[in-house]
TrEMBL record:
Gene3D superfamilies: 3.90.550.50
InterPro entries assigned: Fringe-like_glycosylTrfase (IPR003378)
Domain of life: Eukaryota
Gene Ontology BP, a term: regulation of Notch signaling pathway
Membrane topology: Single-pass membrane protein; Single-pass type II membrane protein
Stated family: Belongs to the glycosyltransferase 31 family.
GO cellular component: endomembrane system; membrane
Species of the source: Strongylocentrotus purpuratus (Purple sea urchin)
GO molecular function: O-fucosylpeptide 3-beta-N-acetylglucosaminyltransferase activity
Designated name of the protein: Fringe-like glycosyltransferase domain-containing protein
Positions of the Fringe-like glycosyltransferase domain: 1-191
Locations listed in the record: Endomembrane system; Membrane
Length: 211
């Protein structure tokens, strides 16, 4: 775990601060892909590896799921012009190739990314879309198997769950949005434990019930 020393809130500036630190860490690494998922996502590692093997990390690739059915519009305060672009929602997860992430560093390293967020006054995942699609002129490759809580998760057929890259959930007093999975263990409101122990019990620390 890395202490970013960013504010521990969900504000735009706090999120952009954390994202800028992620880009700076990635730039210093020898990794081929920068993949972002939220801490309340289930990440299907075998499916992620299968996806990334289809793309060359030495080429510019931006992989993710759009949360809207149309490009978002924003005001670029540096040019005072309205711009339109797609972005991959952070709540579902996204991946950026090393080649593209390297090109982004002038806009996304520590300090500069926060200024970019202020430039469009939008959250970190939307700002990434602005940098990639508007400033670098690279398109989003839409991958529908990234899933955030914005999707109607119960509508994903149970037999297709194993092919999803990420899973999310939303549980409130008024709404329950979880995957269509029969719970095989107690204390599993998100169904993530049941999903993992049904399909991937070989991964992780073995906290699955005996079969």
């Amino acid at each position: 775990m890395v202490n970013t020393e960013c504010q521990g809130t969900h504000s735009r500036l706090a999120l952009c601060c954390k994202t800028s630190k992620i880009f700076s860490m990635f730039y210093k690494s020898d990794k081929r892909w920068l993949c972002h998922v939220d801490d309340d996502n289930y990440l299907n590692v075998p499916e992620l590896m299968k996806l990334l093997r289809q793309f060359d990390h030495n080429q510019d690739h931006y992989l993710g799921r759009a949360s809207l059915s149309h490009p978002i519009e924003a005001l670029d305060r540096d040019t005072n012009q309205r711009v339109s672009f797609w972005f991959a929602t952070g709540g579902a997860g996204f991946c950026i190739s090393k080649a593209l992430a390297t090109k982004m560093m002038v806009y996304a390293s520590s300090g500069t990314f926060e200024r970019m967020c202020q430039r469009v006054r939008l959250p970190d995942d939307v700002t990434i879309g602005f940098i990639i699609e508007v400033l670098l002129k690279k398109p989003l490759t839409k991958v529908q198997t990234f899933n955030s809580h914005l999707q109607q998760l119960a509508r994903i057929p149970t037999k297709q769950l194993q092919n999803q890259l990420t899973l999310s959930y939303s549980i409130t007093e008024k709404r329950r949005n979880v995957v269509n999975m029969v719970s095989i263990m107690s204390d599993d409101p998100t169904r993530f434990k049941s999903f993992h122990c049904t399909y991937f019990r070989g991964y992780g620390n073995g906290n699955c019930p005996a079969t």
